[in-house]
């Protein structure tokens, strides 16, 4: 009975040799820097992306950014006619101004949080 | 090989841009929905305003509606008219008399002891009420009346500690 608990290495057993880690350019014990794809996956799967998106949305509402964008949409809709407007139109209407008019404090807050996430997940 | 910090900055901006684009699409989508469903009532603002102001002008010019000051019978926004003196008759809770609603406030002044001559009127209920006033404790049954009679007295700055001060303060 006690024999079954001992690790017995028999020479007759054939199994492939355990692979040794292949030496690479920049190495530690860790893997190479994760790819963008991997980081993105982790970003989404951990729920961090959703959390940060909600935070950003909240900040943009507070500072009136959303209202500005809606006003731009309405103005465009009035000109083009409500039945001729497409989502694509509106996206193109808002995007330049939208990206440019995010307040610096909001940008800083979000960037800080993203950087923190990256530091703890991707180095 | 760029340092991790620079990479991170660029990467963060990338992610921020991603989040922002996502929110932009949300806003655009919502505005699109509102536009298509016609939920934005102020959309054709100018047209509507022109129409409404034309209507208002027509109403003003209409001879069948006189201005507020010309008429004994004023028309309110629902088109109803009210006589200038309220004509309903009901019973005073204090003394039991039948009072015309439009004369109720002055009646109460006398009935509840505000007027000079009224003090003389001693009925069981009013002495009891006045005793309560002098003790300074509020009497809930009289609350609807004294508000109407006391407001014009108290507007000159006498403290409104209790609502029932018309019994206790000396007249100037």
UniProtKB/TrEMBL annotation, chain A:
UniProt GO molecular function: transcription coactivator activity
InterPro entries attached to this UniProt entry: TF_ENY2 (IPR018783), TF_EnY2_sf (IPR038212)
Localization annotation: Nucleus, Nucleoplasm
Annotated region described as Disordered, given as residue ranges: 1-36
GO biological process: chromatin organization; mRNA export from nucleus; protein transport; transcription elongation by RNA polymerase II
Domain of life assignment: Eukaryota
Alphabetized Gene3D superfamilies for the sequence: 1.10.246.140
Pfam families xref list: EnY2
GO CC annotation, single: DUBm complex
Keywords, in A-Z order: Activator, Chromatin regulator, mRNA transport, Nucleus, Protein transport, Transcription, Transcription regulation, Translocation, Transport
HAMAP family assigned: ENY2_Sus1
Subunit structure: Component of the nuclear pore complex (NPC)-associated TREX-2 complex (transcription and export complex 2). Component of the SAGA transcription coactivator-HAT complex. Within the SAGA complex, participates to a subcomplex of SAGA called the DUB module (deubiquitination module).
Membership in a protein family: Belongs to the ENY2 family.
Entry function: Involved in mRNA export coupled transcription activation by association with both the TREX-2 and the SAGA complexes. The transcription regulatory histone acetylation (HAT) complex SAGA is a multiprotein complex that activates transcription by remodeling chromatin and mediating histone acetylation and deubiquitination. Within the SAGA complex, participates to a subcomplex that specifically deubiquitinates histones. The SAGA complex is recruited to specific gene promoters by activators, where it is required for transcription.
Name of the protein this chain belongs to: Transcription and mRNA export factor ENY2
Organism: Durio zibethinus
UniProtKB/TrEMBL annotation, chain B:
Signal peptide extent: none
Amino acid composition bias (Polar residues), ranges on this chain: 124-134
Composition skew (Low complexity), residue ranges: 137-152
InterPro entries noted in UniProt: SAGA_su_Sgf11
GO molecular-function terms, A-Z: zinc ion binding
GO cellular component: DUBm complex; SAGA-type complex
Main localization, broad class: nucleus
Region ranges (Disordered): 115-172
Pfam families given in the database record: Sgf11
Compartment(s) of residence: Nucleus
A biological-process GO annotation: chromatin organization
UniProt KW keywords: Activator, Chromatin regulator, Metal-binding, Nucleus, Transcription, Transcription regulation, Zinc, Zinc-finger
Family that this chain belongs to: Belongs to the SGF11 family.
Official protein name in the record: SAGA-associated factor 11
Natural source organism: Durio zibethinus (Durian)
